[in-house]
Design goal:
18% strand; 10 strands; 10 helices; Rossmann fold; 260 residues; seven-stranded parallel sheet; single chain; SIR2/SIRT2 'Small Domain'; elongated; alpha/beta; binds nicotinamide-adenine-dinucleotide
Amino acid sequence: MIVIDEVERAQAALADYLRVCDAAVAFTGAGLSTECGIPDFRSKDSAWRRHPPVPFKEFLADPQARALAWRRKFAMDDLTAGARPGRGHRALARLMTDGVVDVIVTQNIDGLHEAAGAPAQRIVELHGNGGYAACLSCGARHELADVRPRFEATGLAPECACGGPVKSATIAFGQAMPQEALRRARMASLGCDLFVAIGSSLVVHPAAAFPVLAKENGAALVIINGEPTPLDGAADLVLRGDIGSILAPFETRSLRASTS
Ligand code: NAD
């Protein structure tokens, strides 16, 4: 494991890996979006601690827990309204356009990869998307623009026309992971020769198993994070620093062109 904590050296070392890889996977977590004004989950003063997610079991069992979940969801949405993609999102979108990064596997629910221009069909959202809602019974999609005024008028957790509970289309603690997203993430991890984990504390499972899977299957593992993670020891390269600063040059620099 090599650890680099100086930004220009980190950029150069990352470029070396990106330049020679055939197929890279970017695996992203909440740390990618903090510079966009969206707090991560585990930082000490995170707003998520004031508005903690309601566990899935409680959501299912109790209409009051469902209403609480919606109040907290909208409180967080108000805090993060207007967030735009940051330097990291834009750099990854560019690396996809250039054919360096094949797939983005994200734990994030903020939709910022797509907003940055990464092709939707090559983004795997492991924990869903907070930009809309869905009925837990029939799966029908519900738009937040419809759900919110009804909720605010009645204080009652929204229900679908079928009678099922409507929930933000994210994966709550204790909720089953989306099987298709897991399958795609697994395929991407097995199919890459470079796996770059960015802004994840790498403690949430099963998501944190993908870097290990990629590494065990022969891919190089690079971790970019501001603080140590439990997988640093397994990584080939650890870049410790601010994600936006490390990724910023890749927004404009074409790695493919520089090799020709
Ligand atoms: P996490 O909060 O557990 O870890 C984020 C990591 O990023 C931390 O190690 C932190 O030190 C680091 N970090 C934060 N800002 C950084 C920066 N600018 N530069 C370098 N490092 C930085 O996040 P996680 O591992 O993704 O797990 C959080 C869970 O909560 C996920 O499952 C996700 O679904 C959800 N979540 C999503 C969002 C979002 O969509 N933006 C935000 C918060 C939580």
